Amino acid sequence: MMKEEVKQELTSHIIPFWNKLRDDENGGFYGYLSFDLELDRKADKGVILHSRILWFYSNAYMTLKDESLLDYAKHAYEFIKDHCIDYEFGGVYWMMDYKGQPADTMKHTYNIAFAIYALSSYYRASGDRHALELAYRLFDDIEKNTLDEYGYQEAFDRQWNLVDNEALSENGLKADKTMNSILHLIEAYTELYLADHNEKVGERLKFQLGQMRDIVYTPETNALKVFFDTKFGLVGDIHSFGHDIEATWLMDRACDVLGDEELKKQFAEMDLKISHNIQNIAIDTDGALMNERENDKIDHTRVWWVQAEAIVGFINAYQHSGEESFLNSAKGVWEYVKREIIDPREGSEWYSEISGEHIPHDYKEIVGAWKCPYHNGRMCMEVINRL
Question: How far is the C-alpha of 91 from the C-alpha of 13, rounded, in Å?
């Protein structure tokens, strides 16, 4: 029943919603829809948003075999290809204006990773070799411009001079390196390796997995550290429940795609420990996953993407362990999503956030630079393909 409900949510709600945001005048997709469902046709267009849209339509096509979805993917691809890539200095811009001109020329490893992720998927969906060539171009940009002796640096100006990493810092903390960027490099390089099985990509993917295992993972608590200085010294005391459960299945998938049996075993054991920990400490009484812990304070906010990743992560843990409790946890989060996160209003999609008191945060947009069809759309496709 869950699989059928999730497929219905994808085909009858999420896809039609995003179809209507296509901008045929200026290219790409509209960049902002307020909580009050007011569309800003002249809002800036996030490059992360467009990479995630490209990934979404490419994979929706591969999952559902609906040719119209490939057309939407091509539309997103053309905006990224023609506007978002910096062909002079490399990488992709951070933000475009509504006409597709650079509004913020910052280069960020996390952002470039998502472009690689999207272009690799579009190549798999369409067979367009130019998309794969662009993905390799961006892979080379990351490997040439961002590495120091410890790992991947993150935030740069247009010409690759280091700048403050404000884009991925939060909670009043400044981080030079983040678990989030390493995780999404793993995600991106997994997709690129799946597309072409390039040996160098595989080597770098194994390096990133090693960083997650040896630096980011804390075996004493079965949790992932979040923020670091440039030498990977810990910054702050934060435990991000959503990133932990998302990381479990993305790391398992990377090992599966690599086909490395020893890595598969190592990460399956580690990821099950993380999944058990999240199951034990992060599920609230209503079945939802809480957001994070900072120091001794729990943030009970229910964030849309956290719920989506919890469903996939718990299903992945169930498939690796056979433990019914994981499947029950996934079903419990889905019941919460149906009840509270899916916005019942005509012309909307999912709320961004719900308070611990079950009130939608009306200061959070329905569509924005970070609010996209990638987490919830991907959850739907993973459920369809796994169950």
Answer: 33
Domain count, the chain: 1
Here the CATH number for the domain that contains residue 133 is: 1.50.10.10
The pLDDT of residue 244: 98
Q: Give tens-digit pLDDT for 105-143.
A: 999 999 999 999 999 999 999 999 999 999 999 999 999
User: Which pair of tokens denotes residue 381?
Assistant: 């496709």
**Ramachandran category for residue 65: left, alpha or beta (phi over 0 → left; psi -120 to 50 → alpha):** left
CA pair distance 156, 228, nearest whole angstrom: 17
Place of tokens 């999609």: 349
Dihedral of alpha carbons 227, 121, 278, 321, sign: negative
Count how many residues are written for the chain. Answer: 387
Residues of the domain holding 190 = 2-386
- What are residue 227's DSSP bridge partners? 178
**In whole angstroms, what is the distance from residue 111 CA to residue 106 CA?**
10
**Angstrom distance (rounded) from CA 131 to CA 99:** 22
CB atoms within 10 A of CB 165: 22
Amino acid at 332: G
Strand boundaries in the chain, DSSP class E: 45-46, 95-96, 102-104, 107-108, 155-156, 177-178, 217-218, 223-224, 227-228, 238-240, 292-294, 297-299, 302-303, 353-354
Q: Which two tokens mark 18? A: 């995003």
* One-character DSSP codes across 87-145: TTT-SB-SEE-TTS-EEE--EEHHHHHHHHHHHHHHHHHH--HHHHHHHHHHHHHHHHH
pLDDT band at residue 172 under the 50/70/90 scheme: confident
The one-letter amino acid at 219? P
Q: Evaluate if pTM is beyond 0.85.
A: yes
CA distance 90 to 145: 9
In whole numbers, what is the pLDDT of the chain averaged over residues?
Answer: 98
Measured between alpha carbons, how far is residue 196 from residues 78, 123, 346 in Å? 22, 10, 42
